[in-house]
Amino acid sequence: MPNKDNREYRNMKLETRDAIPGEEERKIVTGYASTFEEPYKLFDWDGGEYWEVVDRNAFDNTDMSDVIFQYDHAGRVFARTRNETLTVTVDDHGLKIDADLGGTEIGRELFEEIRGGYTDRMSFGFTVNGESEDREKLENGVVKYTRRITSVNKLYDVSAVSLPANDGTEIGADATARSIRSLSDGVIEKDRAERLEAERVETERRRALVRAKALSGGITK
Fold first, then answer.
1. What is the pLDDT of residues 57-89, one digit of tens each?
2. In the chain, what are the domain boundaries?
3. Which residue from 100, 130, 133, 145 puts its CA 20 to 30 A from 44's CA?
């Protein structure tokens, strides 16, 4: 996963839908890149849990002028808002996306992989403009920290992913498929290794931040 511009990545549900009459050649996937008011755990550290939740108003002023659809946040662009093959909208549930992957051969292969269930999660890349944190001591003595994202500054991409950070995300379809990895000449495996390393570094950074805030009293209940 790329680690640049202070971008963060989270995973949500993505699935295919049947074409309506007149659009049989289109390869449509749909899902939610983010859901509102549904906390998810990011990681554990000694004596604590770190959670996150997206406020339902977090995307009110987000720059979504040119969002792209990728695989694992890297490499080829399969759809984008600028050429109207990707739409991103906010509804009561969260950040909804619809993407037509039928414009390229590798996009059609990714669609079939999603439809076959080989890739069934997605993620989105973003930067944060506003947030707050809360601390709660659980009955078992564990301290639970919850970060609330109140304002997303810019949405960069939505991506189908092989290994999500949030396992509550999905992407689905209904056909047999061969893996897109065989078409990318090992590039995706390289990206996967880089993404896992970036996630490890980010996790360590967040753990250090939580410890520092807890010691200084910066995180309050």
1. 999 999 999 999 999 888 899 999 999 999 999
2. 8-216
3. 130
